[in-house]
Amino acid sequence: MQPSLFIARRYLVSKKSHNAINIISGVSAAAVAVVTAAMLCVMSVLNGFEDLIEGMFSRFDADIRIETVEGKSFDCANEVFDKVRNLKCVEVFCQTLEETALAEYEDKQIPVMLKGVDEHFEELTEIDSIIVDGSFDVYDGAFDRAVLGLGLANQLGAGAHFVRPLHVYAPKREGRVNMLNPEKSFERGTCFMSGVFAVNQSKYDDQMMLVSLDMARKLFHYGETEVTAVECKVTNNGAKEQIKSILGDGYKVMDRYEQQEDFFRIVRIEKLLTTLLLAFILLIASFNLLGSLTMLIIDKKANMQTLRHLGASDKMIRRIFMYEGWMISLSGAVAGIVLGIAVCWSQERFGWLKMGNGVDYIVSSYPVSLQWGDVLVVMAIVVLTGLIASAIPSYKSTKEQEG
């Protein structure tokens, strides 16, 4: 063990001439521990919310979504997409078509995002797990059917298996609008509701309406092989790069994170800003450490003179107090990490911290996801702030002696 480290350890555990130094050192370590635990808990809760929302989206979003870079629609009946379809990593290949339309039920009219899906959509997603009324069925062999988001169904005042038909209007892609008879400028489709789904995201629940791909193509005058997107269920993480290499630069190949890029970017920014804010609070808490080291330097002036007579250099003396500060900071960090892990584990296991009244939310308690990468980040921040807080009094310890 280095002499400077050995002496610093002795200073840490030995009794000081002034009891206030011991108290301030304890307060410094406690402050670091509390802020460290808070930082770890907040980051874990944000991770929990991210995992929660990702899980919701994953029930409706495909693993991979392919769109064209130029234009909106493309033909997927060609050799290139046949290669994608036949990849071993592609488990489900689904054609979809999305356009804006107007839904009418009795006397209510609401703009909707109409999504036409083929027969593989049920295998592609976990749509059955989010059906809250009725069942998933877009064609029963005789009539076109529709599955609506919960918010959209409530706005229309409709429900699964309602007898009255649901009308859908879409503007014709070709020709001019007839101002004398505007109805002729719209294509009309009729279907019956078969089910209602709930993703708990307004993007889908309040706007989305699922119909058969054939009905969507007829309504919007698309060709028999024309789509606005191809969605795939894949078996490994490398599938995206394989598909990209086949399709080239003319297509966007997006995973789940890229499909909801805006949402996940906001979550990451919130996590970053929260971490920076808590790091700043930790830096302020470390000022206790600065005061503790300053008082220790004053208390050990005679010891420093003795060390100088024994041949200790200024560098060695600075290291003693630097190590002292690090050990106080590190002890607080370890205690904070242990405390934070314990709190996160108990919240994940027992859910003792409720959200509101625990009833009117998607989950009753705050979700938690402890990631070891966050533990390392928190530890690195604590070590860095401990270094900054220890460096100033350690440097001054030799300057005062020189003066």
Keywords:
403 residues, alpha+beta, 2 domains, six-stranded mixed barrel, two-stranded antiparallel sheet, 12 strands, elongated
Describe it.
This protein is 52% helix and 19% strand. The strands form two sheets. It has a six-stranded mixed β-barrel with strand order 3-4-9-6-8-7. A two-stranded antiparallel ribbon has the order 2-10. The model has no long low-confidence stretch (mean pLDDT 83). The two termini are 31 Å apart. The protein has 14 helices and twelve strands. It is α+β, with helices and mostly antiparallel strands and 403 residues long. The longest helix is centred in the first third of the chain and has 40 residues. The relative contact order is 0.19. It has two domains: 195 residues, no CATH class; 196 residues, no CATH class. Helix 2 packs antiparallel against helix 10 and helix 2 crosses helix 13.
